[in-house]
């Protein structure tokens, strides 16, 4: 600590970075790491009012964010220094420094950001908007877009500028492209931001070109290009900028789905009643993939071609055990969710590969939310008894139901329960009684679960139970009671509207459960 107090700001910044690097390379105990940062923070605080470079503020912030250390006064002091003189230090900062600032603050607890922000992000945004693409590398763009997604920061001029600068980078890393596509998807879903068509087309074209490069490498080496799995974001660039990691592939597909590529792609690939049109569109997509001219073919075809190539690469990775293991449960669940939204042509083999991987793992490590997504997506895509493409659906659903009963289902929300039971009803799979018993394990938990439900969710759950021939009086009573509350009670403007079909389905479900059930709830 005495030595730390004698160091210059730039030397102390190096010590902050070194501490983080050591924690990543070695299994350093969290308590020891936080103790080290506490000593560095104490030594650094006296220097903060006199700092003359923005990076001397952002590097300690980045270090704190990487190890989730937010104790003491350092964060607020650094933010106050950055905000002084109308954000004077930030006006001379590099794009990398701005990206590091945004990424760090997006990881901070909201109270830290509210207490010490002082308009720093607003000032940084103004600086970034004045920067040309030459001053904003792909990592700075992607880090800032990721931060905006985390913060749900809808600043359309900033987001458009970052996306435009990113697609102008000929050497943009695969990780930056993947992270940016993922972030844009989160922003589209969370706050309604839509990238400009020309920017999305160029981003999809860049992704497609990199995937083609990987395909060429694979053909030369007869195996998928391999790279160590990377974290979602951060300050370190990839050692191999021309390889998408498994998490990156999953996140890109999720981004495409949330950006609404699905509706455009379905329009292009035709519908089941127009096989000729579908065939022509599919041939055009394959031609675009082969010739690398997707960027000149229009927004829809470019994105659709990138989606198809991403699916192809995902399927290839899942066929190799080492690569398949790099997908965490959330990636598998999100990929299935995206496939259900996108419905790309010839994706049956990929869906089957994902189902096989989930079952091979016996759903180990899957949360209740992950399992609900996986089961629901498979059911909606026809992974059931009548499917001609898939093998062994009913044992697969049995394994999924068993995993759900053994997971953290008691912590699942009503939405996850609805997705689970809706999926089982779609494929006519009746789970073992354990799963239903979990929902009524205690009166307090059942009441808490139903009290958070909407009328449509109550109706859907009643319909699913009736279709499966299941009846649990306490659950049905709670659902019907909640349904009545949402429809009839409270002020008029707070009442929920329910479609005629949902009302009919609810009455039908009660009738199927038995005349006495319908009679008991007729009042």
Beta fraction of the residues?
under 5%
Could you give a short account of the major beta sheet? none
Could you say which structural class the secondary elements and strand pairing correspond to?
Answer: mainly alpha
Ends apart, CA distance between termini:
74 Å
Quote the average pLDDT: 84
Evaluate the radius of gyration.
26 Å
Q: Keyphrases for this structure?
A:
523 residues, mainly alpha, 28 helices, 69% helix, FAST_kinase, RNA binding
What is this entry, summarized?
The chain has 28 helices and no strands. It is mostly helical.
What does this structure look like?
Residues 212-236 are annotated as: Disordered. One of its GO terms (biological process) is mitochondrial RNA processing. InterPro entries: FAST_kinase. Helix 6 (95-107) runs parallel beside helix 9 and helix 9 (138-151) runs antiparallel to helix 10 (156-167). The model is unreliable at 228-232, 235-239, 268-275, 287-297 and 385-390 (pLDDT under 50). The radius of gyration is 26 Å and the shape is globular. 47% of the residues are buried. It is mainly alpha-helical. The termini are far apart. The chain is 69% helix and 0% strand. The chain is built from 28 helices and no strands. It folds into four domains: 1-128; 132-229 and 240-354; 362-431, no CATH class; 445-523, no CATH class.
What's the topology here?
Layout: H1 2-6, H2 9-25, H3 30-44, H4 55-67, H5 74-91, H6 95-107, H7 110-116, H8 120-129, H9 138-151, H10 156-167, H11 174-191, H12 197-221, H13 246-258, H14 261-269, H15 275-291, H16 299-318, H17 321-324, H18 329-342, H19 348-360, H20 368-380, H21 393-406, H22 414-426, H23 433-439, H24 443-451, H25 455-467, H26 473-488, H27 500-513, H28 515-520
């Amino acid at each position: 600590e005495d030595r730390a107090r004698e160091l210059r700001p730039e030397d102390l910044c190096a010590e902050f970075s070194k501490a983080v690097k050591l924690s990543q390379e070695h299994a350093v105990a969290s308590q020891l790491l936080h103790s080290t940062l506490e000593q560095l923070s104490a030594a650094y605080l006296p220097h903060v009012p006199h700092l003359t470079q923005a990076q001397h503020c952002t590097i300690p912030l980045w270090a704190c964010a990487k190890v989730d250390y937010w104790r003491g006064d350092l964060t607020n002091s650094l933010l106050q220094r950055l905000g002084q003189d109308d954000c004077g230090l930030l006006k001379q900062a590099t794009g990398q420094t701005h990206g590091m600032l945004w990424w760090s603050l997006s990881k901070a607890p909201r109270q830290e950001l509210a207490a010490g922000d002082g308009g720093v992000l607003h000032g940084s945004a103004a600086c970034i908007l004045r920067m040309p693409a030459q001053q904003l590398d792909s990592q700075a763009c992607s880090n800032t877009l990721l931060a905006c997604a985390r913060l749900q920061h809808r600043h359309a001029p900033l987001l458009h500028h970052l996306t435009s600068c990113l697609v102008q980078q000929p050497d943009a890393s695969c990780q930056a492209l993947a992270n940016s596509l993922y972030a844009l998807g989160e922003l589209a879903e969370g706050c309604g931001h839509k990238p400009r068509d020309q920017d999305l087309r160029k981003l999809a074209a860049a992704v497609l070109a990199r995937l083609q490069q990987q395909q060429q490498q694979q053909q030369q080496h007869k195996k998928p290009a391999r790279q160590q799995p990377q974290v979602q974001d951060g300050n370190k660039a990839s050692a191999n900028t021309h390889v998408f990691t498994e998490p990156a592939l999953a996140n890109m597909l999720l981004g495409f789905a949330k950006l609404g590529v699905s509706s455009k792609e379905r329009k292009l690939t035709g519908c089941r009643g127009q096989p000729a049109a579908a065939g022509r569109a599919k041939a055009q997509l394959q031609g675009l993939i082969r010739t690398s001219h997707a960027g000149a073919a229009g927004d829809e075809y470019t994105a659709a071609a990138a989606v198809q190539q991403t699916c192809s690469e995902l399927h290839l990775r899942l066929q190799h055990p080492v690569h398949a293991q790099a997908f965490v449960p959330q990636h598998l669940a999100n990929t299935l969710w995206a496939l259900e939204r996108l419905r790309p042509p010839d994706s049956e083999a990929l869906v089957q590969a994902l189902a096989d991987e989930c079952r091979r793992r016996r759903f180990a490590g899957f949360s209740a939310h992950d399992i609900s997504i996986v089961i629901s997506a498979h059911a909606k895509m026809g992974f059931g008894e009548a499917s001609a493409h898939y093998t062994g659906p009913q044992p697969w659903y049995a394994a999924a139901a068993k995993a759900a009963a053994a997971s953290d289902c008691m912590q699942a929300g009503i939405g996850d329960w609805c997705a689970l039971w809706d999926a089982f009803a779609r494929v006519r799979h009746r789970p073992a009684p354990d799963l239903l018993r979990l929902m009524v394990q205690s009166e307090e938990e059942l009441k808490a679960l139903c009290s958070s439900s909407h009328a449509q969710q109550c109706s859907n759950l009643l319909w699913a139970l009736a279709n499966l021939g299941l009846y649990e009086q306490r659950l049905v009573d709670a659902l019907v009671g909640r349904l009545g509350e949402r429809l009839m009670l409270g002020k008029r403007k707070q009442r929920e509207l329910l479609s005629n079909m949902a009302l009919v389905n609810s009455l039908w479900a009660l009738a199927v459960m038995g005349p006495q059930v319908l009679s008991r709830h007729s009042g």
